[in-house]
Amino acid sequence: MSEKSDFALVARPPSAVEKAHLGAKRILCTIVADTLAITRVEGAEAIFNRGMNYYRGDGVAQDYAEAVKWFRKAADNGLVTAQEILAVCYACGDGVTQDDTEAAKWHRKAAEQGLAMSQDILGLCHACGKGVPKDEAEAVKWYRKAAEQGYADAQYNLGCCYFEGKGVTQDYAVAVIWYRKAAEQDHASAQGSLGQCYTYGEGVEQDYTDAAKWTRKAAEQGDVNAQHNLGVLYERGDGIPQDYAEAVRWHRTAAEQGNVGSQHNLGVCYDTGQGVPQNYKAAVKWYRKAAEQGLAEAQYGLAQCYAQGDGVPQNYEEAVKWYRKAAEQGNVEAQCRLGLHYDLGNGVHRDATEAAAWYRKAADRGYAKAQCYLGGCYDQGDGVPLDHSEAAKWYRKAAEQGNVDGQCYLGISYATGDGVSRDVVEAYQWVKLAEEQGCERASKVVDSVKALLSPEQLVEAERRYQELCSRRRRA
Asked: Has residue 43 got a pLDDT over 80?
């Protein structure tokens, strides 16, 4: 779990506008008295207050339609809070037919009067194309107006625009400025995003300690992506002492809320006994949850369990099903394994052509094991035309990545002159390198290759071998 993709990037969800409307509804219902005291629009306060009574069911039967009637009167008189709650009613379909266009109209009226909440929501409407034409630059304009008033949601949204380059030129440093402003107001998503920036050194100097600090703040507020990311930081010991049990705790918290990355990572922990007692059935449970959400790594993990009979009865057909799902998403390990199942006829009818095709997909993306297997296909003419030169090419690619089978077979190719010019010195260095790393086949042939060398060639071969080992240590 060492790639950037292990972390969950904190981003605005597709339902950002709906969440903003729900938040606006909650806020408006709790700040009515203060807002009325500030606005003092002639006659509008009492009208709006009556609407709020119907909206909340205070002293009268709750009646959204009646509330909307009074809100409209106050909104038409210019009361900004009435304009915003009327927008929310249209957005949510409370007392009126749901109408995004009408909602955006009233958000705009309130926004133009300077209400930061409305400016932020209008920005979201433009970002999503909800009730107004999609226009990322216009979204930025409204976010900025609200952000400059100190509105944390807008500061976060503006930070996202700079981070993603939406509506503005991408600028990580400016994104960090806005994330920090919101984060210092305890905005959980902004804290999580700031943590990510410190994790990868985007817009700031990379600093795992600050990454852990901000990620923890967001996680402790319940931000599920931050909970996942904190689990990853504990796994790696980045910015905090490595603690697999703590990693499991945070992954479990996120996994139980449906975070797909943590479901997968929790599966890995149970699979390997890292931070928890090894439990293959629990591993399968969590792999399956993430796999059914479409995560390729979890689909591969679940396939491995079926292939090996870990936590479930061994079932090659099920293994192939899940390998295929992951392989079709580009997971190179799954592509290679699917190729191997076609090669061996496990869970599918043996099909050498199909095997070679899947090996090639993974090999073309640099997966060493698949490169070696593809070399074997060309060496034997199995699923592809017999071509020793092509075999040697793929063996070399695998060998140079440290694949011991590739090193062994490349050495044998040099010993026999199949696909390359015969060179017993070159053969010896590759076979010896594989043998030193525990390759069983290499241990069986290294003495035969050594016997082909003259004393002078053996000295040269040993020199090249030491040179090769030195290059590998430096790599």
From this structure: no
- pLDDT at residue 41 above 50? no
Euclidean distance between CA atoms 324 and 305, whole angstroms: 14
Count CB-CB contacts under 10 A for residue 97: 7
The C-alpha atoms of residue 183 and residue 176 are separated, in whole angstroms, by 10
| pLDDT single digits (tens) 144-182 | 999 999 999 999 999 999 999 999 999 999 999 999 999
Number of domains in the chain: 1
Count Cβ neighbours within 10 Å for each residue of 11-32 and write b for 16 or more, e otherwise. ebeeebbeebbeebbeebeeeb
- Confirm whether 266 is domain-assigned: no
What are the tens digits of pLDDT across the range 307-362? Answer: 999 999 999 999 999 999 999 999 999 999 999 999 999 999 999 999 999 999 99
C-alpha count within 13 angstroms, C-beta hemisphere, residue 380 = 12
Helices 64-76, 80-92: crossing angle, 10 deg rounding: 140
- What is the percent of the chain where pLDDT is above 90? 87
By residue range, what is the domain housing residue 10? 1-142
| Domain of residue 105, CATH code | 1.25.40.10
> Is 41 among the domain residues?
yes
Asked if the model's pLDDT at residue 385 lies above 80, the reply is: yes
Mean pLDDT of 398-422: 96
**What average pLDDT does the segment 446-466 reach?**
92
Cα-to-chain-centroid distance, residue 268: 16
Output the pTM of the full model. Answer: 0.86
Res. 37: pLDDT tops 80: no
Token pair in block for residue 45: 């306060």
Q: 233 and 212 in contact (C-beta within 8 Å)?
A: yes
Q: Distance (Å, rounded) from C-alpha 198 to C-alpha 336?
A: 35
Flag whether 13 is in a domain.
Answer: yes
